[in-house]
Amino acid sequence: MMNPVLDQERVQHLVARQSSSKRRALLAAWSRPDRELPLVDLEVTWVRLSTLNHRTKAEQMREIETKGRPDLFSADPMGSEAQAAQLRILKSQPGFDDLKADLRERGQQEPAVATAEGVLVNGNRRSAALRSLYLDNQHAPSRYVRCLVLPADATMDELVDLETELQIARDFREDYSWVNEALLIEELFNREAQNWDRVAARMHKDVPKVRAQYEKLQQLHQLVALSDGTRHHADFDENESAFEELTRHIRTKPKAEANSVRGAYFLGTLTGVNYRDLRHLQRPDAAALVRQELESDPTIAPLLCAIRHDVPNNGGDVLDDALGDAAQEEDLSDILAFFVRSAAKR
């Protein structure tokens, strides 16, 4: 039975396209027994980009925060505002120009996958690149995108599983950032009743690997929360190694040492220190060592004095939750509070 929530006008448009085409093709990753789906050519300006695409989740979170629009991608996902924002995100991702060049030279090699109302489950980047070629570069052959069409009664869980199978498990691409992969793992973990075996099976990875990604994300959640909206998950795509080493080190350490090392790593990451240079801070007195080094530098000492006056009196409240007891003499709460609340991205 057709889902009444769907945009029936768009659904009927696709039904008509399927009737005139009669082509079908196999989608091996589809979870249902009948994996042969209709194959149609759709205008690249007609299909809708998925705002639920996990490949862009961290970037969406940043867009929502910077614009102060919690409903930017959810109020009207197929509307012009959400679609324009999603297109900007896709066009700004690394490798987009290379993808356009490849599509111009070789054309579309594999079909995209769309819902019954023409929302792309797979092939969002390719469709965005084709749209750019057609509209920005007047490349006529890019006017259409070839799509497999899913049944009208496809559920949200089926769509997430399909995306996972197509884009993560069997066809992982470099442009799927570690943050977005970890966000998907977190969603699956919550959906699968926090069962790591089921999450690992969905991701086609070992339990330790998916669990490590999840644990790195929990550290990143804390750092982003400390920033009061000035830093975003997507800002830390290039810092995976730092979060990986931090997570691995503190996993079995006492709370005091974990808090000390966490504060030192957070501060180092925010100030652009290479993760290799942070390794010498994997020690119980990491915070004390950092503060000692900073206070002994005559060029930095005046900044520390300014920081003590600039940090709000309640700044330690949020830091206490992440770093532990901020009343200790030799912690980094005041310095870290200053940097995480600095709007200037380093």
Low-confidence stretches: 170-174, 325-329
What average pLDDT do the residues reach?
87
Note the overall shape: elongated
How many strand elements? 5
Number of domains: 2
Secondary structure tally, helices: 15
Tell me roughly what share of residues is in helical segments: 40-55%
Cα-to-Cα separation, first versus last residue: 53 Å
What summary fits the major beta sheet? 5 strands, mixed
The secondary structure category is: alpha+beta
Spatially, the strands of the biggest sheet line up as 1-2-5-3-4
SSE string? HEEHHHEEHEHHHHHHHHHH
Radius of gyration equals: 24 Å
Strand content: 5-15%
Molecular structure report:
The chain has 346 residues and is α+β, with helices and mostly antiparallel strands. The chain has two domains: 8-173, no CATH class; 211-340, no CATH class. Helix content is 53%, strand content 7%. The chain is built from 15 helices and five strands. It has helices at residues 8-21, 57-67, 80-92, 96-106, 124-136, 156-169, 178-191, 196-203, 207-226, 240-250, 255-270, 286-295, 301-310, 315-323, 333-340, and strands at residues 24-26, 36-43, 112-114, 120-122, 144-149. The chain has a five-stranded mixed sheet, with helices on both faces. A hairpin with a 5-residue loop joins strand 3 (112-114) and strand 4. Helix 11 runs parallel beside helix 15 (333-340). It is elongated, with a radius of gyration of 24 Å. The relative contact order is 0.09. Mean pLDDT is 87; it is low at 170-174 and 325-329.
Give the helices and strands, then pairings:
Layout lengths: L7 H14 L2 E3 L9 E8 L13 H11 L12 H13 L3 H11 L5 E3 L5 E3 L1 H13 L7 E6 L6 H14 L8 H14 L4 H8 L3 H20 L13 H11 L4 H16 L15 H10 L5 H10 L4 H9 L9 H8 L6
Parallel strand pairs: 3-5
Antiparallel strand pairs: 1-2, 2-5, 3-4
